[in-house]
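Example 9 (inverse folding). The structure is encoded as follows.
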């Protein structure tokens, strides 16, 4: 299991190849990469976090996913700092003996990262800067788990 919170960009394809290597006993690997959207005239997004606290919180939820869905491995990469539209902001990868577990665990991790991971986002757009508020649909997505 690997959890990384970093400012540097990364290559999702290279990360998938590294993650997949050596998992010959796994029947499924599911990956998801999130990009910064450029809709609504977004010029940039600033992501802040508390080093140490953020990694511990994500590691805890990744361990829960690993145990709950009998995963062979988990990867979570999330960036912080100033990001512009089109940049990769995060990635989740899960490996499991069967696809259902890999898909469900990846969705669980995504729902957690979207609503509960300790990141704070500020958008810069045509009307200036504003902190991103939590969305009801993101919170509601957690209720299924």
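The amino acid assigned to each position is listed next.
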């Amino acid at each position: 299991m690997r959890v990384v919170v970093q400012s540097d960009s990364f290559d999702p394809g290279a990360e998938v190849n590294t993650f997949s290597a050596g998992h010959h006993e796994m029947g499924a690997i599911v990956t998801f990469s999130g990009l910064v959207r450029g809709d609504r005239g977004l010029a940039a997004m600033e992501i802040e976090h508390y080093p140490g606290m953020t990694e511990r919180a994500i590691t805890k939820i990744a361990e829960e996913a690993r145990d709950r869905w009998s995963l062979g491995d988990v990867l979570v990469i999330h960036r912080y700092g100033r990001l512009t539209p089109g940049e990769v902001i995060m990635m989740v990868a899960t490996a499991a003996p069967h696809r259902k577990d890999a898909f469900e665990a990846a969705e669980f991790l995504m729902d957690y990262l979207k609503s509960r991971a300790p990141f704070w986002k500020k958008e810069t757009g045509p009307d200036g800067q504003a902190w991103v508020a939590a969305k009801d649909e993101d919170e509601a997505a957690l209720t299924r788990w």
